[in-house]
Amino acid sequence: MAQGGSQAKRVRPRDRKVAQWTRDYTRLPGIPDEFLGEGGAPRPVWSRYFDAFAALSPDEVDRRFGAADRHLRDAGVTYRAPGDAAERAWSLSNVPLLIDDSEWQQIAAGIAQRATLLEKVLQDLYGEGRLIASGAIPAAAIAGSPEYLRAVAGVKPPAGRYLRIYAADIGRGPDGRWWVLGDRTQAPSGMGYALENRLVLSRAFTDLYKSMNVERVAPFFEAFRDSLRASADRDEPRIGLLTPGPFSETYFEHATLARYLGFLLVEGDDLAVSGDRVHIRTVAGLKRLDVLLRRVDSNSLDPLELDASSQLGVPGLIDVLRKNGVVVANMPGAGVIEARALLGFLPSLSRRLLDEDLRMPHIATWWCGQTSAREEVLSRLDDFVIEAAYGATLPGFSHKGPVLPAELPPVVRDRLRDAIATRGMDYVAQEQVRLSTTPVWDNGKLAPRPFVLRVFAAATEDGWSIMPGGFCRIAERLDSRAVSMGEGARAADVWVVSEGAVSTASLLPAVENVRIRRITGLLPSRAADNLFWLGRYLERAEATLRLVRALSVPQRDPGKGPLHQAIERIQRLLISWGATSLAARAQTSKIAADALHSEEEFGSALSLVRAAQRNASSLRERLSPDAWQVISQTADRLALPAEDEEAVIALAEITLQELASFSGLSQENMNRAAGWRFLRLGRRVERAINTTRWTRQFADEDASAEDLDVLLTLIDCQITYRSRYLVAPLLAPVRDLAVLDPYNPRSVAFQVEELNDHIASLPTLKEGGLIERPQRLAVALQATLTTAEASDLDSRKLFALEQDLLSLADAIGSHYFPHGASATRPEKLTGLA
Q1: Which residues does UniProt call coiled coil (predicted)?
Q2: Coil, helix or strand at residue 515
Q3: What is the pLDDT of residues 206-224, one digit of tens each?
Q4: What are the chain's domains?
């Protein structure tokens, strides 16, 4: 007894912690696990990790977990599941997936070999076609794929590669080795999320991350970026990342990659073909694009030669490829390699093309387009998993993903059997393999969960560079056979752990002869459009909030008289602005709450901030996390109903402060380039319009002192007026302060002066030195306001001023943000450098 007690005392506290965490952790029968090896003992790399992790106190662990969650929330890391209208918050496991460096080297070698093989297969399929001619690949296996693009056949890819980026989904197989579950050659996603996962976890557990000697991912991204740059035919190329837009499932990732790698984030509408080149539509005219990293599927890239209904691509892009005018990564048509119909042929293709066996096996696959394979599958159908040979949806069924015939109702099973027998080329059969498991943190303990690891390879001049780690998706259900982020899964960072010190490389250039730049690239017209309207929507929201605050001042006299008339004017203005549909003279508190929170009214503060949020979502690569956080938090807060009139006032005040903080962030943190100017243009023109409307409403010929007092409150000039005039509000001085005073930052004249300065600094699109329409209108407005007198500003002149301001806003839009047929008007073709 004494001896046992003595031994118990020698157990370290951190060992007791680990024992408590892992007490109920067991390997699932017949399924490999990352934490526990074949004999049931923890793998050394995990023992090392949990020994260091156990040094943290429970409070410290909770604090670190909270820091990681807070970073994800503050950074606005999101994704959109298929079919979802709204974005979902990113779910990240607090425990990384750990892989020993020696094991990782084997994985990397297998991925590099596979990428090399698939590149050679693509070169043949779109080139000489010897593999099909010799029967190494059945012609039907390729002809049946919608991803085989005949328009690209015979086109040699500029810079010589079909694949610039390749990814493979892998998992540990039943024999303990890593197996390939699927190839990703179309437009592999996940790199940006892998980067974000690394940033979050390495910041939350800095000491632990350093002590584990985790291999850095920055050298991979540097190699990838340098490879794309070297593929162009000039020294300083322009590289764009083509995204389907903010409604893409992985738009956040597109913005992350563009910002991290320094690429221009572009949509199809941002690009135009002129001659044998692709150009970006910018506020300075068309500018040549050299390399396009696409995240748009091949069939949607060119509506002229591929899918005619696509609105995501660039008309004429395929013809530019024929003329060697742009590098596209990956080459259109590369997605044909993702077809499961080809999996069964890859082992023999490896021996034929590389003269070696595949280093990393994949799931045994039978393509039912071959008679022998089809007969074998039908003879023991219940032993297999059936999947679509091409794409994700099983032909004839609405089900996405794998189907287990043994689990189907008899009628459905018979229908599947008949479909395979009739048109077997649409189906593949694979052996039933369940995913291996990795630990997750679940209520203070560790639990096993199935996972899929996506590993990325980038083509470089020195061969394939493999990202050390990758994108891990973890399922919540123990019986998962496939993992998608749309099925309640979580992500995990992947740590490749080395015994020795690792490189601390970053994306900062190692050379010293980099040309200094002070302007951040070009501004696509779409981005300028979104910045302009972001400014306008935020200013409209501020105007509505100021009206709500003016309406909701407590202790209003409900009786008749001048004050009551001023309240009615505010109510009518809110109704005419679309902030509320409640009738005038309704209860003031209800009108104010409706103008603040209404989901249905387009002019409510909530609707306007959400509109600004939509514009901001298209600018994720240009906005700082702080700026995005302000807009998101403001929208979330406005969505919560206020309990009473006092709460309405408080919410309006807080929201006005938040909008002021956004304005401060843009003023202090944004470079004074074209993007900043368009954001300011939007705010200035909208503020000028709103102030003119308020002046027309509350400073007309019949305005009372109460009306004028409301106007001074709306334009935040009560203190200024009282410091200048020792009398109650009078019509002429109030009009002058609101409209004509160039020293008042809330006046119309001040906004117009700022508009002139910004417009004068923007690029000139027409040659010949002629003044362009936006500047012509702005100069005329400034001249009008400079020579006007307050006593003459009657309602008619104020209305004319408001219309001129609206015309100026439209002129800015039509001049710098052309759409449709006007997008390639002659003056936009002047600067094609």
Answers
A1: none
A2: coil
A3: 999 999 999 999 999 999 9
A4: 364-431 (3.30.1490), 525-829 (no CATH)
